[in-house]
Amino acid sequence: MRRPPVRAVLVCGGRWHDFDHARLRLLDLLAVHERVRTRVFEDYACVDALRAADLLVTYTCDVRPTPVQQRELAEFVERGGRWLALHGTNAAIDPPSPGGPRVFRTPRVLGEVATVLGSQFLGHPRIAPYTVDVTAPRHPIVAGIGPFEVADELYVSEQHGPLEVLLHTRFLGDCPGFAEGRGSGDEPVLYLRGHGAGTVCYCTLGHCRGRYDVQDLGVADTGDVDRGSWSVPEFTTILARCVDYLLPKEVR
């Protein structure tokens, strides 16, 4: 019996991250499934591919969909599409003005995409180790995994619920350098959100940065390669499970 392919779209691009590393790691996860055929883009100018897709995977930062693209993304999920959104997908960030105070702002320019995703990024404290706790230990994505430590960007986001939170972290504090964002308790790290006939799975982990990825901020060479959660076994296990969970049952 001839089985049709599962069509995936990967959008990976933006600012201030090592998108080459993230793209490679995500393609490796998708390639495990022989029926998944993936098309790759740097932004949301992929309307035709999205209309034919079953699965959307995004790893971006400050990639802002146009109003037309916002509607296409919402309709993709509404009609039953599955969206695995990682790290800065929910982020629109204006960097500091030249000569002004070093403050990053997070304008509300994602439109209905923020509602579909269930959140919009506001800020994060300085990168430092923190503990990720399991909120729903019986869910198959996180079953058998205990609390684990990461050194990643801890996201404080404006939430658009309801959210089925699977992982969370505890944070009470400010986000220095950002105009908004103050931790008020449990911050979601991984959650599911239904929208129409489809599902969004959002994971805030996944920061990575190479030596030359913030030159537009005046840093020619950071002198350091940061792989963040990508070097943490629990994260890579959970990420693979997220892909499995979002694929059609006959492909898993």
Explain the overall architecture.
This protein is of the alpha/beta class. It has a single domain, classed as Rossmann fold (3-Layer(aba) Sandwich), CATH 3.40.50. 20% of the residues lie in helices and 31% in strands. The protein contains 5 helices and 11 strands; from the N terminus they run βαβαβαβαβββββββα. The strands form 2 sheets. A 9-stranded mixed beta sheet has the order 2-1-3-4-11-10-9-6-7, sandwiched between helices. A two-stranded antiparallel sheet has the order 5-8. The longest helix is centred in the last third of the chain and has 14 residues. The radius of gyration is 17 Å and the shape is globular. The relative contact order is 0.17.
Give the number of DSSP strands. 11
* Strands ordered across the widest β-sheet: 2-1-3-4-11-10-9-6-7
The CATH homologous superfamily is termed Class I glutamine amidotransferase (GATase) domain
Q: Which shape, going by the Cα principal axes?
A: globular
Number of discrete domains: 1
Secondary structure: elements and pairs:
Elements: E1 6-14, H1 19-31, E2 36-41, H2 47-51, E3 55-61, H3 67-78, E4 82-86, H4 112-117, E5 119-123, E6 128-134, E7 148-152, E8 156-159, E9 164-174, E10 182-195, E11 198-203, H5 233-246
Parallel strand pairs: 1-2, 1-3, 3-4, 4-11
Antiparallel strand pairs: 5-8, 6-7, 6-9, 9-10, 10-11
Which key phrases capture this entry?
252 residues, alpha/beta, Rossmann fold, 9-stranded mixed β-sheet, two-stranded antiparallel ribbon, 5 helices, 11 strands
